[in-house]
Recover the amino acids of this structure.
């Protein structure tokens, strides 16, 4: 946005006052933009935090399922118990992700 420049009229005080007012408007605009940038940075950091924890939880959940599946192949009689444990672990990780989302608000 181009800056507004007052046009002087025969040395009167009015253009000087207008110039000060325009400078105040410009300062207020810049402060407003700085606040918007700061809020955007803060919100982005919050999103990144939740995404980081969520991705880690998804990776770990996949590992837990994979290990439970491998163990079930080795000991078929334990398949139901292993699946139950995998579900408890997944619920715990989901709770951590949910807690993270709440805490970064």
């Amino acid at each position: 946005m181009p800056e507004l420049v007052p046009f002087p009229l025969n040395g009167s005080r009015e253009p000087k006052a207008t110039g000060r007012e325009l400078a105040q408007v410009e300062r207020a605009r810049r402060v407003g933009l700085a606040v918007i940038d700061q809020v955007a940075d803060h919100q982005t950091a919050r999103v990144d935090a939740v995404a980081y924890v969520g991705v880690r939880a998804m990776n770990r959940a996949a590992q837990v399922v994979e290990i439970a599946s491998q163990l079930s192949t080795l000991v078929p009689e334990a398949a139901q118990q292993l699946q139950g444990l995998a579900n408890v672990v997944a619920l715990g990780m989901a709770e951590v992700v949910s807690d993270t989302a709440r805490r970064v608000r």
